[in-house]
Amino acid sequence: MTERRTDAVAAAVLVVCWSSGFVGAELATEDAPVSTVLAWRTALAAVLLGGWALARGERVARRSLVRQACLGLLVQAVYLGGVFAAAGAGVSAGTSALVAALQPLLVASLAGPLLGERTDRRQRAGLALGAAGVALVVAGDLGAGGAAAVAFLLPVVALLGLSAGTVLERRWAPSESLVVSLALQSGVAALVFGAVAGTRGELAPPPDTTFWTAMVWLVLLSTVGGYGSYLVVVRRSGATTASTLLYLTPPATALWAWAMFGQLPGPTALPGVLVCAVGMALALRRGAGARAGRARVTGHAR
User: Fold this and answer.
1) Is 90 exposed, middle or buried (CB count within 10 Å of its CB: 0-12, 13-18, 19+)?
2) Cα→Cα distances 88→48, 82, 93, 117, 147, Å
3) Residue 145, pLDDT above cutoff 60
4) I need a surface site. Which of 70, 123, 157, 285 has the fewest CB within 10 A?
5) Is pLDDT of 300 > 50?
6) How many CA within 13 A on the CB side of residue 255?
């Protein structure tokens, strides 16, 4: 498989699997509190991936443990915790999705000075178009719910966590395998969510099969597939590219919701998808700045 085809496959898996998390969350939270879902999702992922890493005889340096712990706190604990807490506080999914759509713009602004991943006018226009497309896709859901004003800070915190973790992942260029990285990050998140669930008396899982089916979905598709492919794209193509691909997750989530729950997208969904597609085509154009950034990070890793 050529390098370009590998990148394309990783990008497609990222969009499909990342968006699957919203469906899995809806399935899992039907009969269980959010803290229970997050605690078991991350714990099962840590056990599965940790066992796989041990079977392969992989070892991790102490410095790497600290770095992976930081990444786990930012990319999983802060991001997932913020998104789910916002939903629990009454912030609509559309509003959270719109806030999350700012992530590529934020990462692109940080990736230039910190990583050397420069963007030109065409790419910046694409990023702005992508954000506008996401706004159209989720327009019907905006403003729904009766959340307190302070609750709207929660998706912002989630946005900052994922953005910071993405930039640090690229800058540190970890030498650990994907399996080890995911296992350690999931383990750290499991400690955080397990402590929260235990404090609330919500650690015990429900006995019904729907919850465990949702756990399989979340662990394999959303964590291993979603976070795994996200790390692959960050490491291979850069922080800006990985973040930009997230513009396609609201349309993909709408397809998941239609196929599994019969939820029809709003009238602005199709125009939003088209705008997203145009923005993606502009933003993902590889230029000299992106190649320079990639070479710089590769050299830094060595």
Assistant:
1) middle
2) 28, 10, 10, 36, 9
3) no
4) 285
5) no
6) 12
